[in-house]
Each structure stands twice: as C-alpha cells, then as structure tokens.
Amino acid sequence: MQRVISRSHRVPLVAGIGFILIAAWITAVLSLMNSASYETWAPMFIGPVLLLISLPILSRQAEREGDPTLFRFLVLALCAKLLGAIIRYWVAFHLYGGIADSQMYHDAGATLSQHFRAGNFHTGLSSLSGTNFMRFFTGVVFTLTGTSMMGGFLFFSWLGFWGEFLVYRAFTVAVPEGRRRSYARLLFFLPTMVFWPSAIGKEAWMVFALGIAAYGAARALTNSALRGLVIAGVGLWLAALVRPPVAGMIGLALVGAAVLRRPRRELRQLAPIVKVLTLIILAVMAVVLLRSTDRFLQANGIRTQGGLGSVSNQLTTRTGGGGSEFSPNPILKSPLKAPQGVATVLFRPFLYEVHSGSTAASALEGTFLLVLTLVRIKWIWSAVKSMRRQPYVAFAAICAGLLIIALSSYANFGILARERSQVMMFYLALLAIPPRKHPDVDPVVSSRDVDQLVRA
After folding, report:
1. 7 pLDDT above the threshold of 60
2. Does the residue 313 lie in any domain?
3. d(CA 430, CA 190)
4. Per the structure, how many domains does the chain have?
5. Which of 18, 50, 108, 451 is a plausible cystine mate for 135, CB 3.0–4.6 Å?
6. What is the reported pLDDT for 387?
7. Which of these, 174, 217, 234, lies nearest to 451 by C-alpha position?
C-alpha cells in the first residue's frame, strides 16, 4: 500500500519538476533572444526541440521490447550524444582553433541557406556528391534551423544517433540469440560513437546512412525481403552520395549474408536455384560497384591502374603526416598482414604510442576494447558459428571485415579514429552474442515471431 501511495505522489512531483524546467527553459531562451546573437541562443532552442521530437519514437521502441527501463536508457543515450556534439564543438574550435572540415561545411551551408530562403535554388556546385553533397545538405539544414555552428553540430549529432538507433533495432530484429542491452551499452556509450559522429560532416551522415542500410538488411534477411531491400537500397544510396566505396562494401556484405543464409524449410528444394541466382546478382553487383568505386577514386586523384597495392600505397601517402602519422599494415598489399591490420584499425594507438591528449583518449578506449575482445573471444566464436542461423551476423561481420581492410591502409591515427565509428557499428555486434547453453539444440524462430519483432 505504501508503495502504491508513493508512486501516486511521484507522478505529480515529476510533472511539477518538468513544468518548472520547461518554464525556466522558455524564460531563458526568450531572454537571450532579446540580448544575445542567434549563435548564442539557437543551441538552447534546437537541442531541446530535437530531444522532444525523439521521445515518442524512443517510447515506442521500449513498448516493442516490453521493457519500460529501455525508454530511460535511450533518452540517456540521446542526451549523451547531444553532449558529445558540445564536446566535439569545443575541441574543434577552442582546443584546435577551428581547424576542422565543419568550418568549410558551415560557411558553404550559410551561403546556400541564404539563397534557398530567397527562392534561388541554384547551388553553383559542380555535383551533388562527396564533399559537395555535404555542403548542399548543410545548406538545407541551415535553411530549416538558421545558421548556427553549434546548432548544426547538435543536428548532425542527432542524425548520427538515429543511425546508431537503427543499427540497434536491426540487432534486436535479426539476432534473437544476442544480448540487446550489452550491445546497446557499447553502441551508444563507446566514446568513439559518442564523440566522432557528432559534428557537421561526413561521419554523422555515414553513420545515419549505414544505420538505414543495416536495418533494411536485418528485415531482408529475416522475413520481409522486399521491404527490407527497399530500405537497404535507400541507405546504400544515401551512403553512396558521400562515400561510394563504403556503400559498395555494405552492398557486398548484404549479398554475402544472403548467400550464407539457410534456406527456409518450405523453399529448400529450390535452394540450388536460389544460390545460383544470388551468385549471378553478386557478380553483376561486384562489376557495378567496382566501376563506381574506380570513378570515385580517380575523381579524388587516386590512380587505380596499378591494382590494389597501388591504391593502398596512395591511401597511405595521402593520410600520412599531420603529427599523428604511423606506419600502417595494409591488408590490401598482403593478406599476411591481416592480424596487424585488424589490431591497428580496432585497437591502436596503444598506450605506449601516446604522444598527446587526443591519442591518450583513443588509446584508453582501444585498450578497453582489446581487453573486452579477449574476454569475449568465445562470444565472437559463438557469433561466427551462428552466421547461417542468424544471417545478419554474417552481414555485420563482412561489413566490419571489408571496412577494416580499407582502413588498414590509413597512416594517421586522427583520421583512423574519426572513421572508426563505421566499423564499430558492426564489430560490436560480435561482442554481444554469448555462447549457447545448449549447442545441440537448433532454435528456430518462426515467421510469426519475426513479424512481431519487426512490426512498427
């Protein structure tokens, strides 16, 4: 009885505190609007609005999983992500004096937003891909939110959060043997995921796009093939607007996972035909992706005529320098360097390689991840063994593997740390699948169960 009474008093207390905080927030924003510049008060308006927009979606996910505590967890994760944007802004413009790509995107976006508001939609850009697309998209964002650097950081960080959320939802849909909360803790609170995809730039966009692609892949590999492929196609298209090679890798991973997937019982007689058709699609997709990647690399000044070894050498040369350079172990040049390349991409710099505060933070995270990997090595093996039962695990593993191969040619810890978030989205899934207690029992998830999991 006392618990019921205490709970009945708690609701109006929380509502009262919430009302006071909202009133204080409105008062502060109105006061700053009259006395300060838009750059000063815009973040105080944009951040809470983004949070309020998100609450119904996060609440719906908690209802899907039947876990009331998940709502508080996801709200905390979103707050941490928005805080990451503030820290990222401070590091870029106070610690490093504004030496960041975000400044370029801000300046271009500010100019474009003025044109868009005036009804002039001629961008003046030579294309809408790569860096130019990010300039264009920043202009669209500023047209809606107003020109604010900090506001832009908050919006892009929010965008990155939804990419992480969709990857988490993909895991809950397609990996019934996984530990959801374990994966969520790593995905939402690992410093790499909180900090790097939280600025105006390509990292946040790519995490968002890959999140859409991953969610589509999860549905396509479970029980909603057509809808899943449409969603995955949208995600791959968005990723290809900025980084076509990465989109190609994710597409190849999806086809590879489809090849490894066990055929449904009712379709096992048609399995050989399906396999052959899948391999034909894989060959066609490989040709298309290779051509697209070749055009992208050559447009960025990387010659591809010398083969993968030459591409690797050029990537190493272009990413070296800047004070955080090191000697990489490119897997593209020699598969025998795979162990060193994997360790470099996932765990370096090591503690003995620390020479500054920024590398120290990366080294601490890398050490934690290395220890966790060693502790959960059986979990990784369990994930590998479950690939045919849970084809999304194969998708995540192939994605992580291909991205590691590409990044192993990078020769700068700063660039590597910034782009590592794309790998982490998928690698962390392998650390969240515990060994099965009864390995001789092959669990079968019915189509009805899967429909209940993916139902929106």
Report:
1. no
2. yes
3. 15
4. 1
5. 108
6. 95
7. 174
